[in-house]
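To illustrate the input format used throughout this study, we show a single complete record. The first block contains the structure-token representation of the backbone; no residue identities are included at this stage. The design step must infer an amino acid for every position from geometry alone.
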């Protein structure tokens, strides 16, 4: 291929393929073949990583070691690995937070040799899950929380079910029993029935479940009253009333001033006077220097041009106090080329736990988002 025919895209793909080949060579050296005298005799492939699952298959290599058995310990609890030639693999449980993994080779002479530890950080929250089943039965609304689930990694029983109604509902909601308890004050029960209110409109209510370990989760649902009769929306095809009646104002916080979140707070009353009742924030996460915000480097923090996470919380609170909803333009379908997950795939190739986070062609080459060379 001559320089005249080497397109920009092909040049980038060729460069990445070269980098991938180098990464593959590094992977072979580190993981499975003793290419240097100081290579570890047993090693878990890859490095410290985030894990978005409750289990993960861990693989590794044995350099000149003969093992009768290999175990992979997670926070001190061993899991038997499968040996295949000079490699091993094991599927291990991942708990919320830090998980220290160590591979150990049991040798025929009774001695044991262990790898350097690797830390996998479990990103999922190990909490119960609040599930609401809602149905209409004549003039009553039936709410059932019995389908709520315990925390994924143990069977700690759910200790309480608390139902509450939103204070901004068109009218108060009352439980259909002799006491007629008001839902706005909270009602304790796995399942309840409500008397349908006479006032038309949308009614929102929530269920908070808490387990015996003190962990909790909340979910929310709604129903409508139309001409005095309760009904449910078809959630596949119908929107809530607030969507149908919203005036949305697009906000790029840093363009309001510096820092961006405070500058928006300073103008909330003006936006309300304009008739706005929802803000649509342009991407606010950490991005590449000088770019708009779609090139996310860290999804857990905000661009310093906007302020801090505490400033963002204050913006949301101030908006809600004025009846303004806040929508985030959140962009998880692509990341910056500088995101740590993508950089890990360049260093570790298919050994990276993030390898399949990124779309790839039939040759395993990552693909750009549209034609942006930074996404």
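Output of the design step:
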């Amino acid at each position: 291929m001559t320089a005249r025919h080497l397109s920009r895209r092909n040049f980038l793909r060729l460069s990445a393929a070269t980098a991938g080949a180098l990464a593959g060579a590094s992977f072979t050296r580190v993981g499975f073949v003793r290419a240097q005298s100081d290579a570890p005799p047993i090693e878990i492939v890859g490095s410290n990583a985030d894990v978005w699952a409750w289990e993960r298959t861990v693989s590794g290599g044995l350099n000149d070691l003969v093992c009768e058995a290999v175990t992979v310990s997670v926070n001190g609890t061993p899991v038997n690995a499968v040996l295949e030639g000079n490699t091993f693999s094991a599927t291990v449980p991942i708990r919320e937070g830090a998980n220290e993994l160590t591979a150990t080779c049991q040798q025929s002479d009774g001695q044991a040799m262990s790898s350097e530890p690797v830390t996998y950080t479990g990103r999922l929250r190990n909490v119960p899950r609040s599930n609401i089943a809602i149905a209409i039965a004549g003039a009553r609304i039936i709410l059932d929380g019995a389908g709520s689930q315990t925390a994924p990694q143990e069977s700690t029983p759910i200790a309480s079910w608390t139902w509450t109604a939103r204070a901004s509902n068109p009218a108060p909601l009352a439980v259909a029993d002799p006491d007629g308890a008001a839902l706005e004050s909270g009602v304790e029960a796995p399942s309840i029935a409500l008397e349908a209110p006479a006032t038309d409109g949308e009614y929102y209510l929530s269920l908070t479940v808490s387990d015996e370990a003190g962990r909790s989760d909340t979910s929310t649902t709604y129903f409508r009253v139309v001409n005095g009769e309760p009904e449910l929306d078809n959630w596949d095809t119908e929107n809530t009333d607030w969507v149908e009646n919203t005036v949305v104002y697009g906000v790029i916080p840093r363009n309001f001033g510096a820092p961006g979140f405070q500058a928006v707070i300073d103008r909330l009353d003006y936006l309300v006077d304009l008739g706005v009742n929802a803000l649509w924030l342009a991407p606010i996460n950490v991005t590449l220097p000088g770019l708009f915000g779609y090139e996310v480097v860290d999804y857990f923090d905000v661009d310093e041009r906007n302020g801090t996470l505490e400033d963002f919380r204050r913006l949301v609170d101030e908006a809600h106090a004025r009846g303004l909803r806040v929508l985030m333009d959140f962009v998880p379908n692509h990341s910056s080329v500088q995101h740590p997950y993508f950089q890990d795939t360049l260093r570790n190739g298919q050994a990276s736990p993030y390898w399949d986070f990124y779309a790839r062609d039939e040759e395993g080459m990552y693909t750009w988002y549209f034609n942006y060379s930074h996404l």
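Structural context for interpreting the output: Residues 8-31 form the longest helix (24 residues). The chain has a mean pLDDT of 88.
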